[in-house]
Amino acid sequence: MPAKRHEDERAVLQELARLTVDDDAEIEEDSSFLRPGLPRDILRKLRRTHWVIQDDLDLHGFTGDEAVAQTAVFLAEARRRGLRCVRIVHGKGLRSAGREPVLRKRIRKLLTRRDEVLAFVEPRGFHGGSGAVVVLLEA
Fold this sequence. Notes:
CATH topology: Ribosomal Protein S8, Chain: A, domain 1
Structural class: alpha+beta
Shape: globular
Number of strands: 5
Number of domains: 1
CATH class: Alpha Beta
Distance between the termini: 26 Å
Strand content: 15-25%
Largest sheet: 5 strands, mixed
């Protein structure tokens, strides 16, 4: 197995261990996120798909913990591949207990904590609407 893959897997496991410590924290506004210091027009461009969505991750059917792990692996792989813009489909929570969007909150909270995430937005309806998030990654 390549050494870089071992490194990536270790990094993912360390990140997951760090994230589970304070997983009950809330994000007030989770429909968009912009890293401090970046121009606000990035959010508008991202929502209008100025950057081509280069890969997708569909989290339907995963539990919260599985979805967080899959997302961490997906982001590590996207970074390794040099991807700039990706979409994560977490669903709207219509089939979960209480019809609450459990994955939406957890995934968006995870994204705000990842250094490689510059911004994310809730895309237009034809790209998933409130059931997805389009993410801009560091180049």
